[in-house]
Design goal:
Elements (H helix, E strand, L loop, with lengths): L10 E7 L5 H12 L5 E7 L5 H8 L7 E5 L6 H11 L4 E5 L3 E2 L5 H9 L5 E3 L2 E3 L3 H4 L3 H9 L5 H4 L11 E5 H7 L11 H11 L4 E3 L4 E3 L5 H17 L1 H4 L4 H8 L4 H20 L5 H16 L1
Helix pairs in contact: 10-14, 13-14
Length: 301
């Protein structure tokens, strides 16, 4: 990979967006970039938002200098929308951010630029789980992310740098992004970031994990999260051969293959009851783990 250093005049902040108002996030980034003394651009690409109020809110982004809100008019998929942003942007460095995150620090941009002065090809800032535990204690997504939070620390991600990669918050050299690109076969939710991490490894891209997180504070309701989880399992089943060795769920199945018939039986007998619990007001996280594994096994059968 290239040894070129970052130039402080070529940063593109790229945000794929679907059904989410992200003006405040863009405004926070814009304030930091205006005082950073660098040339920059912020592009937000809408992937077929169906809520007109959200579109009207995001159109305000166009009033901010060096910012552009792109309306595609239809859904092209999570990988394709990122490739569109890659195509229309100009920066030597690209900062990809999910639209439903908050920027917690006034030094968010400067921290990335400081680390980009090194020889890394990819810099992964990670995420932090936000929100009020008292208010969110019955939210399945919150409970799941909270349990996973220790793995979000940079010290943990560095242990398996390519396996731990997420597309939520990372900066990448344009030359590397153009070489790898996002795999547009991944149209439905799930695992497009895992395959990207595998591609980074196969190209021997130098990845640096740092603690410069965006904050997750927007949690879908239990039904929506479970439906997204089921969609992710269908995506995993579709690409299971390519994701082997990079999916923790596939690793569990391989390691405990003798136990899988028992899990399948539990799912057949108790799956509907677990599903009702997980969509209800008091989800049990243990059920979520069993249900996700059982749902995936049902697809393989």
């Amino acid at each position: 990979m290239s040894d070129a250093k970052v130039t402080t005049t070529e940063l593109s902040v790229l945000i794929p967006e679907y059904n989410h108002s992200c003006y405040e996030m863009v405004a926070a980034l814009h304030r930091q970039l205006e005082t950073a003394g660098i040339g920059y651009e912020i592009y937000v690409a809408d992937d077929g938002t169906t809520d007109d109020d959200i579109i009207r809110s995001n159109v305000r982004i166009n009033a901010l200098p060096h910012c552009l809100y792109i309306i595609t008019g239809h859904n092209i998929g999570r990988a394709a929308i990122r490739n569109l942003l890659l195509k229309v942007s100009h920066g030597q460095w690209l900062l990809f951010l999910d639209c439903d995150m908050e920027i917690p620090s006034d030094g968010f941009i400067s921290d990335y630029l400081q680390h980009a002065a090194g020889n890394a090809d990819v810099i992964d800032g990670g995420i932090r789980v936000g929100g009020n535990e008292t208010m969110l204690g019955c939210n399945l997504r919150y409970l799941y992310e909270k349990r996973s939070e220790p793995r979000h620390r940079a010290s943990e991600r560095r242990k398996n740098p390519y396996h731990s990669f997420r597309t939520t918050n990372f900066m990448i050299r344009r030359s590397v992004a153009e070489l790898i690109r996002f795999d547009e076969r991944f149209r439905i939710y799930g695992y497009e970031d895992v395959i990207f991490g595998k591609q980074l490894a196969s190209h021997r891209a130098r990845i640096l994990h740092i603690d410069n997180p965006t904050v997750l504070t927007d949690y879908e309701d239990n039904t929506a999260f479970l439906l997204k989880t089921e969609e992710a399992m269908r995506s995993l089943n579709l690409f299971h051969t390519e994701l082997s060795g990079y999916s923790s769920l596939l690793s569990i199945i391989d390691r405990w293959r003798m136990v899988m018939p028992v899990i399948s039986m539990c799912y057949r007998l108790l799956g509907p009851c677990m599903r009702r619990n997980l969509m209800g007001p008091h989800p049990i996280l243990t059920y979520f783990n069993i249900y996700k594994l059982g749902y995936y096994l049902s697809l393989t059968n």
